[in-house]
Amino acid sequence: MRTLVVTECEKGVVVPATLNTITAARQIGGEVDVLVAGHDCSGIADSMSKVSGVDRILCCEHADFENHITENLAGLVESLSGNYTHVMAAATTFGKALIPYAAALCDAQAISDISDVVNADTFVRPIYAGNALATVKSSDSIKMITVRATSFESASTEGGNATVENVEATDASQNVQFIEQMLSLSERPELTSAKVVVSGGRGMKEGKNFEMLEKLADNMGGAVGASRAAVDAGFVPNDYQVGQTGKVVAPDLYVAVGISGAIQHLAGMKDSKIIVAINTDEDAPIFQVSDYGWNEDLFTAVPALNDELESAI
Amino acid sequence: MKILVPVKRVIDANIRVRIKDDHSGVETANIKMAINPFCEIAVEEALRLKEKGNAEEIIVVSAGPAKCVETIRNGLAMGANRGIHVLCDASPEPLALAKILKQIAERESIGLVLLGKQSIDDDNNQTGQMLAALLGWPLGSYISSIAVNDAGFEIVREIDSGLEKLQLTAPAVMTADLRLNEPRYASLPNIMQAKKKPVEELTPNDLGVDITPRVQTIEVHEPPTREAGVMVSSASELVDKLKNEAKVI
Q: What is the pLDDT of residues A107-148, one digit of tens each?
């Protein structure tokens, strides 16, 4: 058995979920190879060769891979797939687009968003917004899988000694042309790997009120997230969204501010270690999953919390 | 241009699902069903493209048991022109569905296939990507806007780090994210009219597609539940508990 893990990079840095995916790959048993495809990516290949538990790095440097066009990467994955029993990527927008595309090229039924490895062909995955867990067994000769990063520990970035091999690029798609990315820039930790996440919902009333959540996040070294309602209302950009169809987070501390707790939101955060809810509605479903609930107007509670945290420093 | 919109019949998003006693799956008997919300967004976008003069015909397709015709009628009541029902005992897996859709897209000379990005039952998020791969057409996944131009389509995608703009040639496959639009409600006259619109019935066999499942569900069980904790009444009490009891800050 041999598993290929596809590395995801953003602005020249490895996305942390790749390291969790390597842990899932180790649980399959057998060898673990890691594909690093990008423009000018030999430095990333070197750093990935130090990751614990990796046998080989396949490095493919080509300008066609600079913008992570699904078609281009899927073609490369298909060209390598003959050597593998499993191909894995994190269940991020990158991996969720890539793996099914590559699976169809290999005539395999992909398995999305696994949260546990039972054995080499059997996996657990959440369905119905995480309200049920399905144990599924694949009969395909190659298993194409996306991995729920929060369900697996991060592989250590030290102690490994993988060999680095260069692989040939495959032809790029002529049908897709990259124009631009409009990225949200933030100095705060990345949402899906932050130890603390402070999220706001419809109760925030308007976008500028998120400033006090940013302050609260900064006081705890955390990231800022949001419910779908807050994103739909235009308070914050789409990449803040936590939930069934947004990002899945599982920080040590999740603070839900003005979020009622629809099942679609809970799907994205209910595996957090500690959940705090601040809401004026004492019947809000979020309180049923919270370790600490505070039935208070958020416009009173959040400034008071900021004062308390700042006075303690 | 003709637009093909696949739609799926799922348990209504507001229903709390119940797992069957034998753990073979989720209870669907006598449960309120609805069109998958992302599929509804895809239908709406197709209608808007047609209203702007970018499309002449919208075909809604669904694969699954006889009741899926209701979901096709939902799309027809919103304004789609005709339907295709591919009769199967159960919803096919994404790869099998993509193979079915490929046959239909080629047979109907489709210019754009617009799908929802995922269905809210299986949460697979696969069919559009697979269809693009099988057809060799460009993929626009998780899109939040479409503009038709001379070269094809300029689209904006929602990605984890923000937004991304791509130019795709035509024909293309796209999957709709939440913020592409807000779907309209079907009016009563349109619901009545939809009953008269044609729905062609096919089988996977007619299309030469083998839908034998590749992935077997062994069991379905409840996730671990969380217990409600304690209520606090001040900032100092909360900070104290987070520091000294939970030890997370």
A: 999 999 999 999 999 999 999 999 999 999 999 999 999 999
Nearest to A129 by CA among A264, A269, A229: A264
Query: Which residues of A fall within a CB distance of 8 Å from B233?
Result: 294, 296
What digits encode the pLDDT tens for the residues B144-195? Answer: 999 999 999 999 999 999 999 999 999 999 999 999 999 999 999 999 999 9
| Residues of A whose CB is below 8 A from B8 | none
Tell me which amino acid residue B140 is: G
> Given CB atoms, is B166 within the 8 Å cutoff of chain A?
yes
| pLDDT range class, residue B202, cuts 50, 70, 90 | very high
Asked if the Cβ–Cβ distance from B232 to A294 is below 8 Å, we say yes
Question: Measured between alpha carbons, how far is A115 from B71 in angstroms, rounded to an integer?
Answer: 31
Q: Report the residue of chain A nearest B233, measured CA to CA.
A: A294
The alpha-carbon gap from B144 to the nearest alpha carbon of chain A, in Å, equals: 10
The continuous run of DSSP H or E covering A98 comes out as helix A93-105
To the nearest whole percent, how much of chain B has pLDDT over 90? 97
This complex has an ipTM of: 0.97
| A184 contacts in chain B (CB < 8 Å) | 161-162
Quick one: closest CA in A to B217, which residue?
A136
> What kind and span of H or E run contains A254?
strand A253-257
Please report residues of A whose CB lies closer than 8 A to that of B94: 100, 109-110
B182-209 burial, b if ≥16 CB within 10 A, otherwise e? ebeebeeeeeeebeebebeebebeebeb
DSSP state letters, B90-149: SPPPHHHHHHHHHHHHHHTT-SEEEEES--TTT----HHHHHHHHHT--EEEEEEEEEEE
CA distance B246 to chain A (A): 7
User: Around A97, how many Cα atoms within 13 Å sit in the side-chain half-sphere?
Assistant: 26
C-alpha span between B82 and B60 (Å, rounded): 6
pLDDT in tens, B84-131: 999 999 999 999 999 999 999 999 999 999 999 999 999 999 999 999
Instruction: Show the tokens assigned to A208.
Output: 């500028």
- Given CB atoms, is B98 within the 8 Å cutoff of chain A? yes
Residues in chain A within 8 Å Cβ distance of B214 = 108-109, 138-140
Inter-chain contact B235–A304, Cβ cutoff 8 Å? yes
Residue of B nearest to A138 (CA): B215
> pLDDT category, A313, cuts 50, 70, 90?
low
- Model confidence pLDDT, tens digit, residues A20-41: 999 999 999 999 999 999 998 9
